[in-house]
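The protein record minuted underneath.
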Amino acid sequence: MGEAAEVSDRPVELPLEAEEFLTSLTVEKGRAASTVEAYRRDLRAYVGFLATDRNVDLTAATTDDVTAFVAAMRTSGLAATTSARRLVAVRNLHRFLVDEELLDTDPVRDVAAPRLGRGLPKALREDEVERLLAAVVGVDAVARRDRAILEVLYGTGARISELTGLSLRDIDVVSRRMRVFGKGSKERVVPIGRHAGLALEEWLSDDGRGAMAPARWRRRGDEDAVFLNQRGGRLTRQGAWGVVRRYGDEVGLGDRLTPHVLRHSCATHMVDHGADLRVVQELLGHASVSTTQVYTYVSVERLQSVYESAHPRARVGARSTPGR
C-alpha cells in the first residue's frame, strides 16, 4: 500500500464529536448535502490518519498530529488545493469542538495552510484576439451588438457582469469613456479605445440597438440597457457569455475562451506594451495593486519565450566559440 493511502478517504466510522459537527453544518449553517458529504470524506481521511499513523483519538490530537497529517498529504502526492481543502475541514472541526467546550485548546490554530501555486491567467495571443474580433461579420443588429460586446470586453477589461449591467447613461461615446460598477458596487470610469468606441457607435445607432428595441418595454430597466437580447430585454450574463463562446468556437479557441480570458488578455497585453501596473489596476478595478501584479509574471514568461527565440546564444543548439 503506497503513501497516498495514508491520507485517503478511509472507510472509518467518524466519532460522535465529528458527527455533531457535520449535523451543525446542516442545521445551523444551512450547508448543502453535497458540501456536508465532502466534509465527511475529508474528515474520514483525517480521523483515519490519526488512528492508524498516530494512534490517537480525535479529541486527543495535538498540533504535532495535525502537522504530521499535513506533511503526509504533501508527501502522498495530493494536490495542494486538495490538501488545503482538507485542512479547512479539520480546522473548522476543531474550532467547533472548542466552541462546544469539547476541547480546551485548538491544535490547528498555529498550523499553516499548504501553499498554493500562483495561477497564471491564460491570456490569448494578440493574433488570436485579432482573429476572434474579425470573426464577427455583417452589419445587421445582432452582428453590431456582438462586435461591440467583444470589442468592449477586450478593449476595457470589463467583467461580464459589468458589461451586462451597463446603462445608456454610463456610455459617453464622444469623450470615449464608460462608467462601470464593479464588485461591491464600486464605481469606476474607464476609457474606451478607438475600435471599441466605433463598435459601440454602430451598435447604438438606429440600425443596431434601435432595430432590436421593442415597441413596448416589458421590464423596468430594459429601456436603459446598453446591450439587448433579440427579444428586446436586457442581455443577461449568460447571454453575453454565449456570444463570446459562439465566436470562440468559430475561430477554434473552444474552451480556451471565456469572458474572463478576454479581461486577462486585455491586462496582459497592456503590460506587455509597457503599461504601468497602477494604470492597469485602475482599469480593471482591482482593490490592490498586488492583485494586478500577477500580470507581471505573465509578461516575464513572455519575455523568456521571446528572448529564447530571438537571441542567437539563447537557443538550444546555439554554436559556441571554442576556447571561450
